[in-house]
Design a protein that fits this description.
Length: 367
């Protein structure tokens, strides 16, 4: 809690600013009203004052571009999104993006106001269900969202790193952008670095990686290299969306639910997993079930269970049962050995994966 980027500096700002204080109260009331499912009477009442206070700030040149104004606007976007007022939430995001541009871009904002930059980049992606800002390159150059220092240290060209990837990935020849991202994450999460990541660093890593993954152009037969086969394309797309979900899972909910974004990613993951399975059957590759399949399905099971997507969860559970049967997996330890081949961090969320696989094994035993 002490290093939560949305807690440490937020309340001192809110207590000193009337507009930010009002929208912060709305956030608390919205949570209670969402739980009660009886409408938004308190939030709607507070919204009248919040809008008036924020408009007053925006109309004042001395206040319009301050951190508190941007924090208030992006919080209003989150509130409207939570209430289902999608167009209103998008309008607020477009407004705060203009403020970011006037302040010199997201990188300059991060340098001067880290909390506000984190709020804007994170909430805007959750509300719009897609990245709203670019990322810097791996060396930290350019204007955009920055990676943590460990990302730059975890060079994908480090000696011996590629050899640590499982031969099944070599066989599939995952596209270079995905090899780069996966290799760096493995070095961060598999080594001792991840145990020293505080909440702020984990948030910054997640924000950067999810932005980077979702900003990659879609892989299709028309924009791929001539020697890229359909299995490689589909496997890379599965990895792209599964890694994004995995980062959201280990990150957890901070300040505002990422369920909408996760659901959008899940739709892509399921689609590309079906494409991968069909491409593998139609090709000469011997890939049908393996570590990649187990890892992607595991992420899908946990993500759908966490978001209450019963039909999608049942589908991923069926895929898990089929893959486990094909590979002769019968216990959690068997699964872990496959997960570690791809990407696996020893974090509290490991229990979520174990629980889902225990349910899958029970289902296998009664069918």
């Amino acid at each position: 809690m002490a290093s939560n980027p949305f807690i440490v500096s937020w309340w001192p700002l809110a207590l000193a600013d009337q507009a930010l204080f009002h929208v912060s109260l709305q956030t608390a009331s919205l949570y209670e009203e969402l739980q009660a499912q009886k409408g938004f009477p308190i939030s709607d009442l507070l919204m009248v004052d919040s809008i008036a206070l924020v408009r007053r700030r925006i109309e004042d040149p001395s206040l319009a571009f301050r951190d508190e104004t941007m924090d208030s606007v992006v919080t209003l976007a989150a509130i409207e999104h939570g209430k289902g007022n999608i167009e209103a939430s998008k309008m607020h995001i477009e407004g705060v993006k203009r403020l970011v541009s006037i302040r010199g871009g997201i990188d300059e904002l991060k340098r001067r106001s880290p909390l506000t930059a984190r709020m804007v980049s994170w909430v805007s992606m959750l509300v719009m269900e897609s990245p709203q800002f670019p990322t810097k390159d791996d060396a930290g150059d350019g204007d955009g969202i920055s990676a943590i220092p460990q990302w730059q240290l975890a060079s994908a060209d480090a000696e011996g790193q590629h050899e640590t990837l499982d031969t099944s990935l070599d066989t599939l020849k995952i596209t270079p952008p995905m090899i780069n991202i996966l290799s760096r994450l493995r070095r961060i999460l598999h080594l001792t670095w991840h145990s020293s990541l505080d909440n702020t660093q984990l948030h910054d890593l997640t924000c950067f990686v999810v932005h980077r993954l979702l900003l990659l152009p879609p892989l299709t037969d028309t924009n791929a290299d001539a020697d890229t086969n359909p299995v490689q394309l589909a496997a890379s797309e599965c990895l792209r969306y599964a890694i994004a979900l995995y980062m959201l899972i280990i990150h957890g909910t901070t300040y505002y639910s990422h369920a909408g974004l996760a659901n959008a990613i899940l739709r892509q993951l399921r689609y590309h997993l079906v494409v991968l399975q069909a491409a593998a059957v139609a090709s000469t590759t011997d890939y049908i079930h393996g570590p990649l399949d187990i890892w992607v399905i595991s992420v899908g099971m946990v993500a759908t269970a966490s978001n209450g997507l019963e039909r999608d969860h049942e589908w991923f559970m069926d895929q898990a049962c089929a893959s486990a049967a094909a590979l002769g997996l019968s216990k959690w330890d068997d699964v872990v050995s496959h997960l570690q081949v791809i990407l696996w961090a020893r974090m509290p969320q490991e229990e979520l994966f174990r629980q889902e696989w225990e349910r899958a094994f029970v289902k296998m035993s009664v069918t």
